[in-house]
Protein 1
Amino acid sequence: MAEVSTQTILDGLGEIVEEIVGIPAADVTPEKNFIDDLDIDSLSMVEIAVAAQDKFGVEIPDDELKNLRTVQDVVDYVQGLAAKA
Amino acid sequence: MGKTRVVVTGLGASTPLGGDVASTWDGLLAGKSGIRTLPWDNLDAFPVQFAAQAAVEPADTGLLAKPQMRRMDRCQQFALIAAIEAMKHAGYAHKDTPGETVDPDRLGVVLSSGIGGLHSALDSYDVFREKGWRRVSPFTVPMLMPNGSAAHVGLEFNATAGIHALVSACSSSAEAVGYAIDMIRSGRADVVIAGGTEACIHPLQMASFGAMRAMSTRNDAPELASRPYDKARDGFVLGEGSAVLILESEEYARARGARIHAYASGVGYSADGHDMVQPPEDGRGAAKAMQRCLKDAELEPEQIVHINAHGTSTPLGDVAELNGIKGALGEHARKINITATKSMTGHLLGGAGALESLITVLSLREGLVPAVANLENLDDQVDLDIVMGEPRKLPDGPAAALNNSFGFGGHNVTLAFERAL
């Protein structure tokens, strides 16, 4: 699996977050913490994770979800999996 | 010291006749039908091919953000839309709309559904079967639970006196209004958002009510299908939507200078003890609810000028209710202006009691009773004064009215309202 560019992941994640919780995609920047900065609750995070799995073709197990605190964490996770594949 | 009197200070609705109270009321006075053929492509699979769908889609109101809608069942969306209209109508603030605020601990919600989040339950089941549990929305449970609508409204307005969702099929939201009255009388709240909602025009409901042979099958003329008291009536018509009333203690409402639309004077309950889905022909259960309501409201039969009947357009139910009215009100029953507005709105099931309470309040306030639509040939068994043809003017001055609601299971609920002078 080819490396997915950081910008592609950020754009995709921005779209997902805007669709699911209504926060503008432009606010979904790497340093943002999902809970503290974007005010996203745990059930919405589950929805976002499932949508991200579909969009980027990677599995995000529940155990991993709690480690994905910031937008950058998701970028790293998706790129890490892509690198391993 | 007498009972705390309860007043109605706000109204909100989303119905098959309109997306708000004003358009719904205009439709009722004009005798408009909210019933039409369903826009489904597999209609041949159904014995009944029409229903009373809401006039305005929740997404088109602009009141609910898309992400908010994604986690709400359709019935919850209608409820929140009606509650927002009702709270604004009562003069309370909502988001960008300025207004008064209530101490959260003095604000309650009683909002019912007879069925609840059926669409969400079944949609999620489809997702589960096709894609597995991980793709099921994590909001499925709050979307399908029958108290979900009450909870959404409670969260929107930060009501912490208590949130309740009484369930008794088609009398659910009449019970909600009754419980709200008691909540205020008992001192648990000063203001209660009371109402009902339903949105189950789903293939499963069309099939299951069809299997019961409970609905009209007038597929060639849907707008004529709901015709309470008419000789040719053949069943009810399924509807969807929501209605909400803001109830307050009279003292609280007067202190803030609120407009009082009517008094919510009392409630009476009974159970038939007869059958799961059919009333006894003499309407004795309904009569008990009406008598208990009069007692609770401290009203005499002679004070009742109007009844908004349950009248669903079923062959047995319509006449049983009229027998109950005669049983409860005696000779005076013949002088009462009786209407059945389901002839235009269809049957909102768990939303019906609240919607018809709202219409009763408007009838008292405006002094005008909408006529039963589609009533061409009065059933020979009907010997009471049914409002036919044109809306009927009510006498000026003191006036009281009843609203009946009955539900599968043998539930009977009557609410009493009085004109605010």
Protein 2
Amino acid sequence: MNQQRDIGFAMQCPVPLPPGEQILLGHGSGGKLTRELIGQLFAPVFADGELARLGDAAVLDLPGGDRLAFTTDAFVVQPAFFPGSNIGELAVNGTVNDLAMMGSRPLALSAALILEEGLEMAALGTVIASMADACRAAEVRLVTGDTKVVERGAADGLYVITSGIGVVPAGVEIGPERARPGDRVLVTGPIGSHGVAVMSRRAGIAFDADLRSDTAPLTELVAAMIGAGDVRVLRDATRGGVASVLNELAEASGVSITVDGAAFPMLPPVKAACEMLGLDPLYVANEGVAVAVVGPQDADAVLAAARAMPVGAASALVGEVGEAGGTTPVRLRTGLGATRPLILLAGDQLPRIC
Amino acid sequence: MKYLDEYRDDRVALSLVERIRQATTRPWTIMEVCGGQTHTLVRQGIDQVLPPEIELVHGPGCPVCVTPVALIDEAVAIAKRPDAIVCSFGDMIRVPGSAEDLFMARAAGGDVRVVYSPLDALEIARRNPDRTVVFFAVGFETTAPANAMAVKQAHRLGIENFALLVAHVLVPPAITAILVSPGNRVQGFLAPGHVCAIQGWREYEPIARDFGVPLVVTGFEPIDLLEGILMLVRQLEEGRTDVENQYVRAVVRDGNLAAQRVVDEVFETADRAWRGIGVIEKSGLKLRPTYAHHDAEVLFPHDGGPPASESEVCIAGQVLRGLAKPHHCPAFGTECTPEHPLGAPMVSTEGACAAYFLAGRVRQETPA
């Protein structure tokens, strides 16, 4: 007994740990440090094939042949209120979109709230109303939840954790490992809007511009795209932005990807803010933009279907999938014909954007 | 975006590349002085599409990179004092000192804050009257006017608890130091557009005359850089040694006289150490005696301390003088990365090593 307690106190650990003595902010960035944490700690310890697939949601076979998509996501964005939205809507859309990225329609959500002592009731009310509005817009029910309150200073305002389940229709096969050489890469909207909108309200650098988070449910857009042709991979380009997602799916599929720097749609104020702040928009978070890998014969049809939906009106084909090779699987072509790798950043350009 | 898209037009860029090719008959070695220029060149792959006769070497124009270790150690020491708050631009926080960086000082309980303007630091001083707020004033001539204004403002409003830790450096003495250094290969310079927006280019005329080198004041967008390179190549090919201005939309010969007056009122020139290069005479700024009570080096005198040490493998000094390229360093991309920098040029995005790393360049065994 005593011996066990000692072990507990010394924090000796039965599993091999990723490098580093302490958790850094970068471990939550969606970049290289996050990958280290998942690849070197979580995935080996839980040793589950579906977890190791690292999709936006897990897909589980049910008795009877149906397939269930299942996902969970924690939202800690700071500030909790930002142009165009707040943490509540973000938490609903984020989980709805993780389900959509497996081609599924959301069935039901749960929500857990962690509230800091002293949080204003009116702020909580606004967040909850936004969550309800977002559920209606995404046509999903919120059916169970939990609330915890922690001492002042033990959390920053409020955190929202949502989980969700959805049904994957028969015949739909989407996964991060399914990209093949020759496939085309599509993004479904202007990039960088969410991250820059949040940044514009950060203490110390607040600036005024016509910026709004792009948070939106993507279920209908995804359904339209799947209906139009062979969609092989879908990823929600949240933390780490489009560049990080491209790196993840290139690795999962064992392929290379080349994109055109000039092909990515971007709103002028977002572009201006990125210039001013020295941010690369390819690494800035989105909350209503998906990256899709599409079979080459269907690329134009899927693009047309995406553009016909309001949330996908700015969709564009941005690159193509090639054979694996080289140490940097994702490359960007500059307008001058030179190419440079798009690497996975170690940490984040901005902390806590979702 | 106006004033931006027209300087990034790929067709114009490619036609400039072609004109540079036509103008070039011999090998030329050109230095872009400013880290912002290095960043654009590497990021857009401009160095990959130029004719092979043109070699670009990267200059010392990253103020974060050339700030001496002793000054970073000083900032770390101040940050650890309970009666002080250190404010800095974000890039500076991760630059390694001899034992620690400001991030580590913060993890150890020091109050270190990232600000985007010296006036933000002044505001922090106003709100924390019981502590001394020290702004780490790093930069070339470009940032000196804003820092001078912050000091003047503090003086005027009677905010006595605001101080600068001054690490200001000046470009013309650095160019001269490169030209007189043994082994110098640089034959022409792209002079830094933003610095010249403040200072104009009169100071560069004696350099061109005395050393027989052409300089072109150049902006930061791809078209600016290609046009600057074309102007410089033409001068080199024709044997001219003039100061020319590519950055006409921002720079005039006399510069911004009002900004120069403010700087001159608050600062005076002083000898200054450059990390990786050494002490260069009259190459920095320090606060004038009138403002000594806003000078962190006066308020918190050095305790001596152990001598500053540098990594033994890092070749930052050679990189900063244009004698080596970042990917010739044995530590490049392995021991030394933006997450674990051995030398300052790997820290700031304007540093040549970080620009190479972020552009995915890989280490080369033998220098080209």
